[in-house]
Amino acid sequence: MKKLIAAASLCVASFSVQAVTTVPEYDANAGKQIVESVCAACHGMNGISPVPSQPNLGGQNVKYLYKQLIDYKTGYRKNGIMQSQIANLSQQDLADVAGYYAEQPVWNVGYADPVTVQDATKLYLGGDKSRGVIGCAGCHGPDAAGNDWAAFPRLGGQHAEYIATQLKLFRAAGREDDITSDEQKRINDADKEGEVGMMQTVAARLSDRDIRILSDYISAIH
């Protein structure tokens, strides 16, 4: 119970952290030009990625998109390809890109496995008290549409492969005994380095099966 209370407290704290994300006034047309030359190969011009390992971005929360791009720019979120792609972009460029993708139609690409959908639904909506896992819906919503104000991302319809990878990166960061290299950990759910964010706390308690069925389920929420 204490673990659940601590996790819930982290969820409340992360609302205040994410809510301070302020996106500069952006020019979606300028963003479109950057996307065409820099981003479209992996994420598509309309934000629907042709590569399951890369995220769909169309219709995503603009605050979330901007924060992730800034985190890549500063190295707080690590990915060699992303960091090299945006190395020469300014903060205004990043805002323009985020704004452009946020204005694109939302993706709908996944289909759930009927064999595991019941277990996944319970885990997504209500978590598992016996293991201190809180439900994903508390932050991302029962329809997985995210929270625009708090900059919690839309997840529904996202590529299952991408979701699974991110959960594993968060899990590696959330487990103190994990020997995975820093390059294979994701810590940018926390306000600053050295703190433990909500996603790290939740993912640290997920098994490989949890991640597999959750990813499959989330990808099918349209």
From TrEMBL:
- Cytochrome c domain sequence ranges: 26-105, 115-222
Q: Does the keyword Glycoprotein apply?
A: no
Q: Name the Pfam families for this protein.
A: Cytochrom_C (PF00034)
Extract the InterPro entries matched here. Cyt_c-like_dom, Cyt_c-like_dom_sf, Cytochrome_c4-like, Cytochrome_c_Oxidase_Subunit
Q: Does the keyword Metal-binding apply?
A: yes
**Annotated compartments:** Periplasm
Signal sequence span per UniProt?
A: 1-19
What's this protein's name?
Answer: Cytochrome c4
Keywords for the protein's UniProt record, in alphabetical order:
Electron transport, Heme, Iron, Metal-binding, Periplasm, Signal, Transport
Listed SUPFAM superfamilies:
Cytochrome c
